[in-house]
Amino acid sequence: MSTFPRTRKSKLGYDVDQVEEFLQQARRAYDADPDGVTLLTAADIRHTAFTMQKGGYSTSHVDSALERLEDAFASREREAARSALGDSAWYDEARTTAQVILNRLDRPEGHRFSRTSVLTFGYNRADVDKFAGRLVRYFQDARPMSVDEVRTVTFRPQRGGYKEIQVDLLLDSVTDVMLAVR
User: Fold this and answer.
1) For residue 123, which of 60, 150, 152, 162 is within the disulfide window of CB 3.0 to 4.6 Å?
2) How far is it, in rounded angstroms, from Cα 65 to Cα 19?
3) Is the model's pTM score more than 0.85?
4) Could you give the residue ranges of the DSSP H alpha helices within 38-154?
5) Which of 150, 16, 162, 177 is nearest to 93 (CA)?
6) What's the CA gap between 113 and 165, in Å, rounded?
7) Record's superkingdom (predicted)?
8) What's the confidence (pLDDT) of residue 34?
9) For residue 170, what are the CA distances in angstroms to 80, 99, 101, 118, 151?
C-alpha cells in the first residue's frame, strides 16, 4: 500500500523511498520530547526536496502533505517560543521581522532585490514587484492573504531579473511571520 497516489509509470513523481524516509524522520521528530533537541523544524520541511522518478508519488499530494506538516511543526515551535519568551516578546519578534520585510519592500520598484546579469535568468521584476505590493498591503493594511499564496507564488523568468535566492529568502521570512501570528 502506498502513502500517496502514484503517477503513471511514464510520468515523473517524487522518489518514493526518499518521501517515505523523510516521513519517518518527521514522525520521529514530531513524537520526540518537545523540550529536547530539535530534529526537524518547519523551515527544514519547507526546504525539503526530493528527486524525481517515473511512477513516483504524486507531487501535488506530497506537497499538500508537506504544507500541513510544516503548519503542524510551526504551530508547535510557536507555542514553545511563546512559552519561553512570553506572548509579548514573541509578537515583538514577529513584528520586528515584518518590519525588516517591509523595509525591503519599500525600495523602489525594479530595485527591491539584486539583479542577475543580462545573460542569466532571474525572477521577472514586474511579477515580483506586483506580488510585493500585495505583501505590503497584507502587512500594512491587513489585507487578506493566505500562507499558501506565499508558498505557491510563481514568477516568470527574465534575463537580468531579480536574484531568486534573495526573493525566496524574503518569501520564507514572510511565511515564518504568517505562521508565527496564526
Assistant:
1) 162
2) 11
3) no
4) 42-46, 59-85, 87-105, 125-141, 147-152
5) 177
6) 10
7) Bacteria
8) 66
9) 24, 12, 7, 23, 11
Amino acid at 77: E
CA dist., res. 91 & res. 11, Å (int): 45
pLDDT higher than 80, residue 19: yes
**Other CB atoms within 10 Å distance of the CB of residue 94:** 18
What would you report as the CA-atom Rg of the chain, rounded to the nearest whole angstrom?
A: 19
Q: Which residues lie below 8 Å from residue 128, measured CB to CB, with a gap of 6+? A: 112, 113, 155, 161, 162, 167
Distance CA 167, CA 124 (A): 11
| Cα–Cα distance measured from residue 130 to residue 149, given in angstroms and rounded to the nearest whole number | 13
Angle between helices 125-141 and 87-105 (to 10 degrees): 140
Maximum separation of any 2 CA atoms in the chain, in Å: 53
User: Within 13 Å and on the Cβ side, how many CA atoms surround 92?
Assistant: 5
Q: Other CB atoms closer than 10 Å to residue 30's CB: what's the count?
A: 14
Cα 92 from Cα 87, distance rounded (Å) = 8
